């Protein structure tokens, strides 16, 4: 499945001399060329296993899996699909998840991405999606389409020899005064109990996205591909009544130095439907036999993992970056979807160069709910759609946005009022790459 292998495509529908932009549909040859372009675009080996094509096709909405073809070769790719995004307060909004964006180095600066993105965002707006989302591989690309950073991610590495645990620790929940229990779970059990547990978990964490059946098939190995890494081990935390409340999945290497284990335990996923479950799982992993270090994987910037360490300096940040980007599509629906910490009103002037979600809006908020609608009242704040995304989920403060020149205060005191209204207890977190 080489990336430069031509596929047979009908003549271009838009212009005989121009690129042919089309959904791959159920054409396996077009899809194979599309996948090959993806692999090249993300610097993966260009050849893959053709036997995986049916499984890959089965996991996608092929009507929204788009390629740009020129002279029978795929030169650009784009895909979107339906997603749910949790907002402060526990509600979920409909999102247009954008992924698999590549343009061949031989075809850049020709407006291909602009055409693909514009068509997709306008279709999403017409479908009634509230926002669009993506994971930005490069910072400078997506701001011009109205996306803005909305949830960041932090990876920690914990030196267990310096963490200060009592050598007699067991790693059991009772060490923490908890009445639940932890045990290993096979992949089949994880596939059974994981989806319902994750649904409870994601309502607690703004920025979290849903995981569909295909995600769980991939994660638990029901569907495996040739470039998958080692299968993870799974730990299940259940409460005193035996109800699953937390799940941790991890891998551990096998490395020894000078007669001592020097193994790195890498967390693939850790979710908890209660603070107790999170704390119990982190404690157990930090007490894991023969592990000398724990890499937490991509966590929220306010993750409580440090709280289980006697010496919290044993955890150091190894990576921190903007992760989930959000693009408002329906400003009124966005602002009315989430909860607010207090009562108040705010008029925002939203600038949107693509004309999808701009205008002036009056937000009337309270802890019980909110309303938002277009208004003729004078604006309190003026900001772009990308800035609005970070304020909406709670990853950014209006005070900081004003300091960086991304927000203008039109009414004295409006910035402070916005921070009081929009603030959240924990910053948003998206656990999954998509």
TrEMBL record:
Database matches in HAMAP family: Eis (MF_01812)
InterPro entries reported in the protein's UniProt record: Acetyltransf_17, Acetyltransferase_Eis, Acyl_CoA_acyltransferase, Eis_dom, GNAT_dom, NAcTrfase_Eis, SCP2_sterol-bd_dom_sf
Highest taxon of source: Bacteria
Residues given in the record as acetyl-CoA binding sites: 101-103, 109-114
Oligomeric form and interacting partners: Homohexamer; trimer of dimers.
Region (Disordered): 1-22
PANTHER family hit by this protein: N-ACETYLTRANSFERASE EIS
Family per similarity comment: Belongs to the acetyltransferase Eis family.
Organism: Streptomyces alkaliphilus
Pfam short name (any one): Acetyltransf_9
NCBIfam families tied to this protein: PRK01346.1-4
Name of this protein: GNAT family N-acetyltransferase
Biased composition (Polar residues): 1-16
MF annotations from Gene Ontology: aminoglycoside N-acetyltransferase activity
Signal peptide boundaries: none
All copies of domain N-acetyltransferase, residue ranges: 19-221
SUPFAM superfamilies recorded: Acyl-CoA N-acyltransferases (Nat), SCP-like
Residue numbers annotated as active site: 142, 434
Record-level GO BP terms: aminoglycoside antibiotic catabolic process
Keywords, sorted A to Z: Acyltransferase, Transferase
Keyword Acyltransferase carried by entry: yes
């Amino acid at each position: 499945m080489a990336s430069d292998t031509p596929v047979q495509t009908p003549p271009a529908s838009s212009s005989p001399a121009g690129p042919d932009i089309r959904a791959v549909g159920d054409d396996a040859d077009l899809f194979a060329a599309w996948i090959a372009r993806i692999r090249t675009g993300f610097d993966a080996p260009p050849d893959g296993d053709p036997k995986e094509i049916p499984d890959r096709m089965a996991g996608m909405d092929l009507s929204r899996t788009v390629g740009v073809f020129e002279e029978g070769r795929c030169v650009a790719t784009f895909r979107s699909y339906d997603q749910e995004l949790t907002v402060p307060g526990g509600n979920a909004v409909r999102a247009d998840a954008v992924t698999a964006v590549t343009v061949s180095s031989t075809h850049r600066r020709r407006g291909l991405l602009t055409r693909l993105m514009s068509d997709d965002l306008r279709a999403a707006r017409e479908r009634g999606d509230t926002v669009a989302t993506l994971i930005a591989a490069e910072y400078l690309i997506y701001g011009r389409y109205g996306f803005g950073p909305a949830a960041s991610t932090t990876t920690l590495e914990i030196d267990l020899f310096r963490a200060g645990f009592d050598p007699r620790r067991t790693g059991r929940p009772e060490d923490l005064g908890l009445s639940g229990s932890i045990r290993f779970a096979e992949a089949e059990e994880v596939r059974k109990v994981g989806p319902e547990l994750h649904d409870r978990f994601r309502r607690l964490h703004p920025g979290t996205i849903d995981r569909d059946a295909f995600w769980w098939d991939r994660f638990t190995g029901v569907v495996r591909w040739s470039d998958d890494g080692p299968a993870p081990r799974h730990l299940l935390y259940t409460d005193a009544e035996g109800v699953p409340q937390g799940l941790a999945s991890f891998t551990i290497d096998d490395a020894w130095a000078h007669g001592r284990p020097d193994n790195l335990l890498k967390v693939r996923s850790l979710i908890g439907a209660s603070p107790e479950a999170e704390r119990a799982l982190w404690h157990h992993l930090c007490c894991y036999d023969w592990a000398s270090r724990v890499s937490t994987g991509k966590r929220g910037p306010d993750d409580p993992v440090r709280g289980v360490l006697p010496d919290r300096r044993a955890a150091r940040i190894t990576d921190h970056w903007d992760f989930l980007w959000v693009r408002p599509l329906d400003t009124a629906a966005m602002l009315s979807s989430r909860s607010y910490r207090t009562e108040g009103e705010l008029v925002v002037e939203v600038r949107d160069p693509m004309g999808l979600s701009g205008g002036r809006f009056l937000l009337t908020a309270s802890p019980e709910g909110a309303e938002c609608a277009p208004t003729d009242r004078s604006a309190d704040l003026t900001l772009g759609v990308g800035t609005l995304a970070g304020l909406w989920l709670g990853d950014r403060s209006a005070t900081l946005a004003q300091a960086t020149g991304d927000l203008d205060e039109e009414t004295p005191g409006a910035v402070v009022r916005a921070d009081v209204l929009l603030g959240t207890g924990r910053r948003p977190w998206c656990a999954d790459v998509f």
